[in-house]
C-alpha cells in the first residue's frame, strides 16, 4: 500500500520540500494553493504532523469548518473531502467529471462519512477539487 510522503516530523513541508516530492505535479500544486489562498475563497490551510499516520497533512478550513484535507505523495497530491449522508447527494449535481462521480458512488463510508479522494497530477485536474470546495463551503 502506498504511503504519503512528508513523513519526517522535524521537516516542515515548505514549498521547497514539497517541490522535491511532487516533481512534475508541483506547478499544479502551486496553482491550486494560489486558488485556495485567494481572498475570494476565504480558506485557511494549516499543516500539522499526525503521529498516528506518521505524515504531514494540510487541513483546509473555511471559518471553523474543515473543507478538505491535502496530502502530498510521490509525484502527486491528494485532496480528501468527506460528506454526510445528507450532503453526499449534492455531489452528483456538481459540474465535475463523471468518472469522479462514479468513483464517489462506489466509495464505502468511513464511519458516518463518505470519502471523495482526488489525486492531482497536473494543472488540468485542479478544476474538480475547486468546484467541490465551493460546494462544501456552501453547506451548513
Which keywords apply here?
5 strands, 29% helix, single chain, five-stranded antiparallel β-sheet, 4 helices, 140 residues, 29% strand, alpha+beta
Task: Give a description of the structure.
- With 140 residues, the chain is of the alpha+beta class.
- The chain has one domain (15-138).
- Helices cover 29% and strands 29% of the residues.
- It contains 4 helices and 5 strands.
- The chain has helices spanning 15-22, 26-36, 98-106, 127-138, and strands spanning 43-50, 55-62, 65-73, 76-83, 114-120.
- A hairpin with a 2-residue loop joins β2 and β3.
- It starts with 14 loop residues before the first helix and ends with a helix.
What's the short version?
The chain has four helices and five strands; from the N terminus they run ααββββαβα. The chain is of the alpha+beta class and 140 residues long.
Distance between the termini: 35 Å
Shape: globular
The overall pLDDT, averaged over residues, is 96
Order of helices and strands: HHEEEEHEH
Structural class: alpha+beta
User: What helical percentage do the residues reach?
Assistant: 25-40%
Strand order of the largest sheet: 1-2-3-4-5
Question: Cα-atom Rg, whole angstroms?
Answer: 15 Å
Strand content: 25-35%
Total DSSP helices? 4
